[in-house]
Amino acid sequence: MSNKTLAFLKINQSSPICHKISSVSTILAMLALYLWDIVGKINETYPKLELTSGIMDAMGDALVVGISVINTLSANILNRKQQLSINASVKKIDIQTNRSKLLHVSVHCVVCLTFSWDIFSRNRSLGWAAYKYNLVPLFFLYKFQLFALQIHNLATKIERRFNILHREMAQTCDVDQITNCMKTHYVLSKLMENISTIYGWQILLMYKMLALYIVGGLYFIHLLKSSGLNFHVAEAICYLLWNKFLIVGCVVLVFSCDRANQEAEKTPQLCRNLKKTKIMKQFLKQVDHLAPTIRLPQGSPVDRRAFFDIISDIINYVVIVLQFDG
């Protein structure tokens, strides 16, 4: 284990100028797509919708594009060093199970189903001239789902590695083995810290986007029943599929981060329960100092309490919609 741990720390931290140029070009391309999307919808799509639904659609597009833009900016430019550290660490703790592979396949099947139904239903009600601009948020929603799976994979690997670490700690009192456990714990702690630094804002925006899409979907279904707009039942089913699609991505991400945080929290108590040797006291001091947790930018952990924040955002959006309609 010591060789693997040392390998974690041998990281090439170079960031060539060509990589930065490529990242900036990618960001500019995403912003250009968003501009084409919004301008086209203002001219073709939003005149066919009510004001509130058009505003919510524009906000949803802004959030999903913003997640991709911030992700590229944070991972490839602002925090390139931390991203290289994550890449080097993941190569050594890459654990793929049949369950995780099944999850990936299932998510992509849901993506294909949702996208196909969206094209069928909304193209039918809006017409291709107005609907074609919706292909842009479809693309970015797919990128979002890949982002959610990426964080899920990282958090799951961290959880399993902490579980292995705790079993090794419980089975040995050897100084060299405990030293190796300290090194492994340090690397895992830094990995969680880097995830928080690079991906914290994206996860926070994900909460806002999920709440907005849920309210937007329910509002469109309300329009289906109460207004004279050219909606079809198939479109209502489409919005329900979108809600399911985004909820699954959010749940997978949040629960995996929550389990990783819970597993990391077991280390201090395990250290206190073991024999109080000099090396173990040093280990406990390190554990208390690092306190590894996947966090949001404001410092709160990514755990199941996030759903209370999402519910709060949903209530805020509902109040705003009611004010507009009133």
Using only CA atoms, what is the Rg? 23 Å
User: Which spans of ≥5 residues are poorly predicted at pLDDT below 50?
Assistant: 4-14
Overall shape: it is elongated
Series of secondary-structure elements, N-terminal to C-terminal: HHHHHHHHHHH
Provide mean pLDDT, rounded.
82
Please, how many domains?
A: 1
Helix content: over 70%
Specify the number of helices: 11
Strand content: under 5%
Total number of beta strands: 0
Q: For the terminal residues, how far apart are their CA atoms?
A: 64 Å
- Structure classification: mainly alpha
Largest sheet: none
Can you characterise this structure?
With 326 residues, the chain is mainly alpha-helical. The chain has one domain. Helices cover 84% and strands 0% of the residues. It has helices spanning 2-8, 17-45, 51-78, 80-92, 98-126, 128-131, 135-171, 175-226, 233-273, 278-290, 306-325. Helix 3 crosses helix 4 (80-92) and helix 7 runs parallel beside helix 9. The longest helix has 52 residues, at 175-226. The protein is elongated, with a radius of gyration of 23 Å. The termini are far apart. Mean pLDDT is 82; it is low at 4-14. The chain crosses the membrane at residues 21-39, 59-79, 100-120, 135-155, 198-221, 233-256. It is found in: Cell membrane. One of its GO terms (biological process) is male courtship behavior. It comes from Tribolium castaneum. It is a multi-pass membrane protein.
